[in-house]
Amino acid sequence: MLLKGKNAVVYGGAGSIGGAAARAFAREGAHVFLAGRTPAPLQALAKEIGAEWAVVDALDAAAVDAHADTIGRIDISFNVINHNDVQGTPMAEMDVEDYLAPVLTAVRTNLITWQAAARHGAGVILVFGGEGDPPRGYHLGGLQTAFHALEAMRRQFSTENRGVRVITLRTGGVPESIPKNFQGRDAITKSLDESTLLGRSATLEDVGNVAAFVASDQARTMTAATVNVSAGALID
């Protein structure tokens, strides 16, 4: 087991990406702590994988610190809460507040949870997003700007906190994370698959497996870096 004896906290743990990471962490022997704002899915996943769960607003520094205190040592921290992004509107026509919402949310919540992790002995902080060129035909609002902001933060946090490994996971899109009732889901899935070099997109299980590996001691030399989990949709 790659993560035996490790304490891993996943903020947004009941979401698609968070759930995939939590399942992989638990499978590899970690003691998993799920944090989020909606009790029912947290409780269901916690029961499935044998994790602990708590209602935590990851935009509230006091709430995050209080929760971290109940955990004690945090070996792995992964924040994948919803960034409150608005998509589908061209940038030139978008309301300024709608554009800024994911940027402000991403910067605030990650700074809060990273600080809490550092105060509680974190060995690894995982980041989700990464830099990339805007894809043609999609109106992503401020989401990609938020991802770029997180990369700037990741670089700075890596250099200022010796001994804490900070790694970004870049996927280029995970079709399974798109709600099944989302209009145009099949077309988006086809487009994502066709954009890869392997002819298939990363799955949620793929993302979870890579998250578990880079959080493990087998990847102990990896920090201040991005890990490409895009099946070749993104070329480094």
From TrEMBL:
Listed name of the protein: SDR family oxidoreductase
One GO molecular-function entry: oxidoreductase activity
Recorded family membership: Belongs to the short-chain dehydrogenases/reductases (SDR) family.
Keyword Transit peptide in annotation: no
Lineage per the UniProt record: Bacteria, Bacillati, Actinomycetota, Thermoleophilia, Solirubrobacterales
Keywords for this protein: Oxidoreductase
Gene3D superfamilies (alphabetical): NAD(P)-binding Rossmann-like Domain
Record PANTHER family: DIHYDROANTICAPSIN 7-DEHYDROGENASE
Cell wall biogenesis/degradation found in the keyword field: no
